[in-house]
Design brief:
two-stranded antiparallel sheet, 5 helices
Length: 153
C-alpha cells in the first residue's frame, strides 16, 4: 500500500511541475528541440525494463501504449500554436491544468483497478509505457503542426 501511495504522490507532483513548466514555456518561442526533447529524455526510463519485476508482456505493452495514445487526444486538442514577431509560440490553454488533473484521477482509478490484478512492478511498467505513448503521440503531433506553421513564415 505504501508504494501505491508513494507513486500516486510522485505522479501528482510531476503533473503539477508539468503545468508550471508548460505555462513558463509559453513565454518563449517554440522550437523543434523543445518539442522533441521531452520524449527523448523520458525514454531513458525504459532502462527499468532491464529488471524482471518491471517486465510486461507484449500484449500489455500494446494495451498501455494504445491507451496512452487515446489519452494524448486531450493534450493534442489543447495544444495550439500562434505566430508572433516571426516566432512560433505554444499558446497555453486554460483547460490544460484541468485535463492534466483529470488524466491524473483517471490514471489513479485505472491504476487501482489494474493493480489489484497484476503486480506493482508490472503496473509501474505499464503506466510508464502509457505515459510514453501519450507524450510521444502528443509531441509528434505538435512537431507536425509546428513544421506546418514554420513553412508559412
Amino acid at each position: 500500500m505504501f508504494w501505491v501511495i508513494a507513486s500516486t504522490i510522485g505522479f501528482a507532483t510531476m503533473a503539477i511541475i508539468a503545468i508550471f513548466i508548460r505555462l513558463k514555456a509559453a513565454k518563449r518561442p517554440a522550437s523543434i528541440k523543445k518539442i522533441i526533447l521531452p520524449p527523448i529524455m523520458m525514454s531513458t526510463g525504459m532502462l527499468m525494463f532491464i529488471f524482471p519485476i518491471f517486465q510486461v508482456s507484449l500484449i500489455q505493452v500494446l494495451e498501455a501504449f494504445i491507451v496512452g495514445m487515446i489519452f494524448s487526444i486531450f493534450l493534442i486538442k489543447t495544444s495550439k500554436f500562434e505566430v508572433r514577431d516571426n516566432n512560433i509560440y505554444l499558446i497555453p490553454s486554460r483547460v490544460f491544468p484541468f485535463i492534466l488533473f483529470g488524466l491524473l484521477v483517471l490514471r489513479l482509478i485505472v491504476k487501482l483497478i489494474v493493480g489489484s490484478y497484476i503486480s506493482l512492478g508490472e503496473t509501474t511498467g505499464m503506466f510508464f509505457i502509457l505515459a510514453l505513448g501519450m507524450i510521444i503521440t502528443w509531441r509528434l503531433t505538435m512537431l507536425f503542426q509546428y513544421l506546418q506553421i514554420r513553412k508559412t513564415i
